[in-house]
Amino acid sequence: MTSPAPIHVIGGGLAGSEAAWQIASAGVPVILHEMRGVPGVKTDAHHTDGLAELVCSNSFRSDDWEYNAVGLLHAEMRRLDSLIMACGDANQVPAGGALAVDREGFSQAVTARLEAHPLVTIVREEIAGLPPAANESNGWDSVIVATGPLTSPALADAVLQLTGEESLSFFDAIAPIVHADSIDFDIAWRQSRYDKEGPGGDKAAYVNCPMTKDQYEAFIDALLAGPKTEFKEWENVPYFDGCLPIEVMAERGRETLRHGPMKPVGLTNPRDPTVKPHAIVQLRQDNALGTLFNMVGFQTKLKYGAQTDIFRMIPGLENAQFARLGGLHRNTFLNSPKLLDGQLRLKADPRLRFAGQVTGVEGYVESAAMGLLTGRLAAAERLGKPLDPPPPETALGALVAHITGGHLEGAKFQPMNINYGLLPPLEAPRQDAEGKRIPPKDRGRAKKRLMSLRALDALERWRAG
Ligand SMILES: Cc1cc2nc3c(=O)[nH]c(=O)nc-3n(C[C@H](O)[C@H](O)[C@H](O)COP(=O)(O)OP(=O)(O)OC[C@H]3O[C@@H](n4cnc5c(N)ncnc54)[C@H](O)[C@@H]3O)c2cc1C
Predict the structure, then answer these.
(1) Would the ipTM clear 0.95, i.e. be above it?
(2) Average pLDDT over residues 135-158
(3) Is 456 helix (H, G, I), strand (E, B) or coil?
(4) Which coarse location class describes where this protein primarily resides (predicted)?
(5) I need a labelling partner for 349 at 20 to 30 A (CA). Which of 24, 219, 301, 404 fits?
(6) Average pLDDT of the segment spanning 210-216
(7) What pLDDT, on a 0 to 100 scale, did the predictor assign at position 146?
């Protein structure tokens, strides 16, 4: 039997290494192109030539599959023979409930496993533009682009040419995202400014959180005093006027926010219609499922711990659970909901699949997870047995569904971590398996466990075909 033509993977980071492993494991040859290792060529964040280098923290975050969405993603990836998880597990260092790894040992293990695989060829070179034209045997008809948040400029420019101005971002400006079921609707209410109807006919698209003068002043004090993350020298993220960090707006004057994202006009608090709030924080639906809301205009460089403390000062958000916190980073990522199909192929040139952070997922584990999926999808296609992605009840399927379609149309697409809000909602259980009443305070946690069990069950059914 003749061997199938190879698949090319560009970028040997978290996503590309995992994709290459999955392709080779399916019996398909793979050529992995990584530019680090060429003298003088590297990104601003990488320091070594090792594959799957962790550029910052050494943590894969929580390893708790029952109650944490990233822990669930770990569990799903382990069941699908993930190289990144196997090397992470083999190189773990003590970190409580988190999975943290010895970064050098981890990267060396990934590199060694790939180098030793007979179907993997590693080429140290930059692909400095669109991949070459395909012929019958060179394999360039199936390419996975996994070049990460710091994709080399030559390749990023070529993708930009192919997809158009609005399609590739070089920075993210992320406002915090809150789980809808953690908002206190005894305080917050739904209404659009001036009851203006949206294109879908909705006059109550926003969630509004009112503030008195004292609450506003205390909030501004906290914003000004809160610890901020510094930019690295090379990051040099420009502040665009439309998306200034909220604390920078506050620094420009104590009233700036009241005339900007927190302006209290065109809104009436139904519980106190005659009193005009001094300021109002608005949240807008962020995903098609309606389980997540983003804080409008609240992009921030505040440190994560400070964000939760300060944003829980907002009336209605005292018990907010954050699906993700805000940030501003250098980050090359596609407008995936517009550009990619459900197989993570570029609609404008379907021989190109994208994987990793460049697709608009965020984090080591999420990036590797997208590598795992694209590797499997590309290998299945090469073998003439196309595969559907896992169902959205799984963490893997939920991530793909979000970046390729679950993000709300019209809203600006911003990178996303895995979280339970991306999975189809479930009613919080009132009783446990033995029929014992679950107290209301424990129901959210019980719901997460049910969602995790549902996910692993759905994954097994998908795996069984
Ligand atoms: C400074 C920084 C800090 C971060 N810190 C964290 C953190 O602490 N925790 C976390 O979970 N996530 C973090 N992230 C986010 C993200 O999860 C990681 O960047 C992750 O490595 C993304 O995986 P990836 O495979 O998509 O990209 P990468 O791991 O960056 O891999 C991309 C690879 O492609 C190569 N490459 C680029 N262009 C080309 C080309 N044209 N030809 C050939 N090769 C090319 C690069 O050299 C690189 O090896 C951070 C990101 C940045 C930028």
Answers:
(1) yes
(2) 96
(3) helix
(4) cytoplasm
(5) 24
(6) 98
(7) 98
Residue 198 domain flag: yes
CB-CB neighbours of 224 under 10 Å? 11
Cα(13) to ligand 1 centroid in Å equals 6
Looking at the structure, do residues 372 and 342 belong to the same domain, yes or no?
A: yes
Do 313 and 354 lie in one domain? The reply is no
Cα(10)–Cα(311) distance, rounded to whole angstroms? Answer: 40
Same domain membership, residue 155 and residue 30? yes
Place of tokens 């964000």: 307
The yes-or-no verdict on residue 240 having pLDDT over 70 is: no
Mutate to test the pocket of ligand 1, among 169, 367, 374, 419 (most ligand atoms within 8 A of CB): 367
Would you state the pLDDT for residue 386? 94
pLDDT at residue 200 in the model:
67
Domain that residue 60 falls in = 7-172+330-422
Ligand 1 site, residue 107, Cβ cutoff 6 A: no
The residue whose two tokens read 């192919």 is: 162
User: Whose CA is closest to atom 13 on ligand 1?
Assistant: 363
Q: Is residue 20 located within the same domain as residue 163?
A: yes
CB 189 within 8 A of CB 208: yes
CA of 205 to the centre of ligand 1 (A): 36
- Mean of pLDDT values over 129-141: 95
Q: Is residue 374 domain-resident? A: yes
- Tell me, yes or no, whether 55 lies in a domain: yes
Atom of ligand 1 nearest to the CA of 57: 8
